[in-house]
Write the structure tokens for this entry.
Amino acid sequence: MSGQVLPSQAEAGCRIIPFADHGLKKAPPLIRLRGIGKSFGPLRVLANVDLQVQAGEITALIGSSGCGKSTLLNILAGLDTQDHGTYTLAESKNSEKAGRQRVAYMFQEDRLLPWRTVRDNVALGLEAARIEKKERLCRVYNMLKLVGLEEFAGAFPYQLSGGMRSRAALARSLVVEPEVLLLDEPFSKLDSQTRSQMHAELLNIHAVTGMTAVFVTHDVEEAVVLADKVAIFAPRPGRITEIVPVELARPRSLLDKNVTEQIRSLRGKLCFNPHPSPPPDDSAPAEGAGLHVSPLKGGITGKGCRASPGVKRESL
Ligand SMILES: Nc1ncnc2c1ncn2[C@@H]1O[C@H](COP(=O)(O)OP(=O)(O)OP(=O)(O)O)[C@@H](O)[C@H]1O
Ligand SMILES: [Mg+2]
């Protein structure tokens, strides 16, 4: 599946996904979170979360279960709102196009509608945007081809394997040509071989579209293989304790010693930094206030170190 490319415009008979601006490291960030705080009743879930994501960048959020990663994605998706702080999604010249969604969300569960075929599931967002049928079919076809599901366009979800369902869900998220794709543990239910295939597919699509992606994972290898930077979360309340850049050439092979070294280093940071000291009150957030590192505080028992709860053991 890896190494696939989009069909040519002539082949597809319609326009293809435009190439978005890519890797504009010096441009203002596309996503800017400042001092984000969120509580559910008495439960303080997020405090002083600061994060900037450049257009075209892939960012991983990693941290223990319950530390607020999905809550943050929900805020990024506009499904929830923060109690404190600001979230800005910068304007872009590409935002106005018909049927284009600024942000798409791929949930952990594929959420395919069982009564719809793969084709019709993928077409959902375009129907909602009232894209005319010819254009819709064209875009759906392109997307199914991109994820290697064109032969299953007429299949129903129950007729697909887990990996194929993930591909269909990915196609459904991408067909609206989002500027930002949010993914919440999207491949966590897949076996490791299929997961690796999905990584290659996602990177291929990223290379073609230049989209910006923010994904949640418990899998350290997945974070290093995919991300340009990894934001490490600590719990109670959830906050980012460190942002680790991953400056390795792609594709990143698990056989490459630089890749394995980065994985080892990231595991060490997660292992030794499960419960850093709480941040200051987020009622008076200051930029960067949520970002502090205390690598040796807490969480260490005996000679070894305790993995953050919820960070899967096999990932550590
Ligand atoms: N709508 C809600 N109402 C009340 N509490 C909520 C709500 N959504 C999340 N929470 C609580 O907020 C905390 C953070 O939840 P969240 O789902 O963001 O964690 P997470 O980091 O994504 O965890 P996991 O890795 O297990 O998916 C949890 O304690 C959860 O119970
Ligand atoms: Mg979650």
Q: What stands out?
A: The helical segments are 9-12, 69-77, 118-128, 133-146, 162-174, 192-209, 220-226, 257-272.
